[in-house]
Design brief:
- There is one protein chain.
- This protein is of the alpha+beta class.
- Helix content is about 60%, strand content about 10%.
- It has 29 helices and nine strands.
- It has helices spanning about 10-20, 25-35, 40-55, 55-70, 75-85, 90-105, 110-125, 130-145, 150-160, 165-180, 185-195, 200-210, 215-230, 235-245, 250-260, 265-280, 285-295, 300-315, 315-330, 335-345, 350-375, 390-405, 415-425, 445-450, 535-540, 555, 565-585, 585-600, 605-615, and strands at about 410-415, 435-440, 455-460, 470-475, 485-490, 495-500, 510-515, 515-520, 525-530.
- Strands 1, 2, 3, 4, 5, 6 and 7 form a seven-stranded mixed sheet that branches. The chain has a two-stranded antiparallel sheet with strand order 8-9.
- The chain is globular and about 90 Å long.
- The two termini are about 15 Å apart.
């Protein structure tokens, strides 16, 4: 598995220059690689070694640390980092790296000899006394408050190598790791054992547990902090976050309110209170909370993004778009705001601008994923939405037929439902809903009455309701949870239908060849289908409709999509690609790359498709 295939040619050239003693040109080439891919482990390692060779020991450390952090099992990275620390006068840090490698059974060339050298150097350092420890703690706190978290990490590791029971060092190490988004769990657990009455340590440990999905353990930590100090507003706010994750919304609201009772100008708590209200669909209250947060902190990017979401939920598109833009003005690399703005612009019909923000969100997400591979962090794909139960789908179709036939409404099987039943003899095992067609002249209210009057089906208002010219409607079976999409066939001259999916900006439409309704035997009875089913399936799925393809998206890849619908369809494809990458559904992501590239050329899509095929071995 090679996450950096396109750098393969430059790296060997740089190594050859390095070995030949041409350090200047080698350095330039390493730096060129790192401009394209800042987390490339070999380029970081080699540039750090080169810096050490030119006696720039302090300058070498960030590169050596980055390489080591990317792959702690690589013995050469550990050796070079330990040598770099020793050369920079950080003998304790070097010993920590070597001992960690020893514990993890990493094979380090000449590692034991280097360790003896480090121990000899440490023997020359006088032990700390109590006064020096107190001075050291104050100095570390000052460094931490100045934002110099990497230095705090390095120094505390040196202190702990000499004095493993220094609770304050464990506390500050944990805080420094947490701030740098590194693994702080072990350090904070040590700190809590040594300093059980320290409220900040309990709070920080709760934050680590909350980020790791251990929400109830986080709640316990926050409650221990609050038992020590009841007026700790930050712990009340964090407790609310953990309770919200557990779905205990009223308790979460109470925790946020308590934080604000103590600290009325706590912008994060106002923002989190707004999030809780938005989860409960109390959008006006959410809006008020976000506006209070922004009054306290006008450049608060997350607050602008969340306010925009609340405004969008109230149908206030223009205001929402403005606040998404303000979020990005404050934080240009705010991935979620790019994605949300892309959605809002798509619904508003601004497809070119929507696409630009979807692409930016995908680029940022792609960079994160490549960094994750470089650091050796395993992926954790989210479980996909489960497909329908075939049994439940069959029962739903039986009931639909009974209700529509009783109301004398003509209909037939369509799209994925027809494809499965006609081609495979049953409902597709990966399908998510049932698809039916109804002539456009049938009154929509008549369909609603036929399906809703017994309470078995519930109409879903996915977009603005336009009863006179609807192209699609969706219902859900209340008990079985099966979704039914109804598509209305609008005549287009004598030879075609126009059909498609409604959308707030404009419908996504296609032109298919006209057909009558015929009968098809399935499960021992007759079902209405298009009179020329194979011609219809070719119109929707293309000439290869007989080949099963779970990744085929009929919205994106329908070969007869109307030209005016293409910009919206492409935005839809990028939106879905983002979701697949976010959820780490690699096969689906690869399918969307292929289908989008069939619509338009895009180097970003090509890069993602290549990375999926190579780095994560996606077919």
């Amino acid at each position: 598995m090679n996450p950096y295939p396109h750098h393969d040619q430059r790296l060997p050239r740089a190594v050859d220059l390095h070995r030949a003693g041409n350090l200047r040109d080698a350095e330039m080439l390493y730096r060129a690689i790192l401009r394209d891919c800042p987390d490339h482990p070999d380029a970081n390692h080699n540039l750090g070694v080169l810096a050490g060779q030119t006696r720039h020991f302090e300058a070498a450390l960030p590169y050596l640390e980055k390489a080591y952090s990317a792959n702690r099992k690589q013995g050469q990275y550990a050796l070079s980092y330990a040598k770099g620390l020793l050369a920079a006068g950080q003998a304790v840090g070097a010993l920590v790296i070597l001992d960690q490698a020893l514990r993890e059974e990493v094979d380090i060339p000449a590692g034991e000899a280097l360790r003896q050298t480090v121990l000899a150097r440490l023997a020359e350092i006088p032990p700390p006394d109590a006064a020096r420890s107190e001075t050291s703690e104050r100095a570390l706190v000052d460094l931490f408050n100045a934002g110099r978290h990497a230095e705090v990490e390095s120094i505390t590791r040196q202190i702990l190598a000499r004095n493993p029971d220094a609770g304050y060092a464990w506390k500050l190490l944990g805080a420094a790791l947490l701030t740098q988004r590194k693994d702080a769990l072990a350090a904070l657990e040590h700190a809590v054992r040594l300093m059980p009455d320290d409220v900040h340590t309990h709070n920080n440990l709760g934050n680590v547990l909350n980020e790791g999905g251990r929400y109830q353990d986080a709640v316990d930590c926050y409650r221990r902090a609050l038992a020590l100090r009841a007026d700790f507003a930050e712990a009340h706010n964090n407790l609310g976050n953990a309770l919200k994750q557990l779905g205990r919304m009223e308790e979460a609201l109470a925790s946020y309110r308590r934080a604000l009772d103590i600290h009325p100008d706590f912008a994060d708590a106002h923002n989190n209170l707004g999030n809780a209200y938005r989860t409960l669909d109390r959008l006006e209250k959410a809006e008020a909370s976000y506006r209070r947060a922004l009054a306290l902190r006008p450049g608060f990017a997350e607050g602008h993004n969340n306010l925009a979401c609340a405004l969008l939920g109230q149908g206030r598109h223009e205001e929402a778009i403005g606040h998404y833009r303000q979020a990005l003005s404050s934080r240009p690399d705010y991935l979620i705001a790019h994605k949300n703005l892309g959605n809002a612009l798509m619904e508003h019909g601004q497809f070119e601008h929507s696409l630009a923000h979807f692409r930016q969100a995908i680029q940022l997400l792609f960079d994160r994923l490549r960094t994750q591979v470089a650091k050796g962090v395993p992926f954790e794909p989210r479980p996909p939405r489960p497909p329908m139960s075939v049994t439940a789908a069959q029962a739903t179709l039986d009931l639909l037929r009974a209700r529509l036939d009783a109301a004398a409404i003509p209909w037939c099987l369509l799209a994925g439902t027809l494809l499965g039943i006609y081609r495979d003899g049953n409902i597709l095992p990966y399908d998510k809903d049932m698809d039916l067609a109804i002539p456009a002249e049938i009154e929509r209210d008549r369909v609603i009455r036929a399906l809703s009057h017994c309470g078995e089906f519930e109409l879903r208002h996915r977009f603005r309701w336009r009863p006179d010219d609807t192209y699609s409607m969706s219902f859900v079976h209340v008990k079985l949870g099966v979704t039914i999409d109804l598509f209305f066939l609008h005549p287009d001259g004598e030879r075609h239908f126009i059909t498609g999916v409604d959308h707030p900006a404009q419908p996504m439409l296609c032109r298919i060849r006209r057909f009558d309704f015929a009968q098809h035997r399935w499960r021992g009875t007759s079902w209405p289908i298009p009179s020329a089913p194979e011609r219809y399936l070719e119109d929707v799925y293309g000439t290869r409709w007989q080949e099963p393809d779970p990744g085929f998206d009929t919205v994106l890849s329908n070969p007869n999509r109307l030209p005016e619908s293409i910009p919206l369809v492409v935005c839809h494809g990028y939106q879905r690609l983002y979701e697949c990458l976010q959820n780490q559904h690699w096969s689906r992501a690869g399918a969307y790359c292929r289908q989008l590239l069939a619509r338009r050329a895009d180097p970003l899509l090509e890069a993602i498709a290549g990375w999926l095929a190579d780095a994560v071995e996606c077919p």
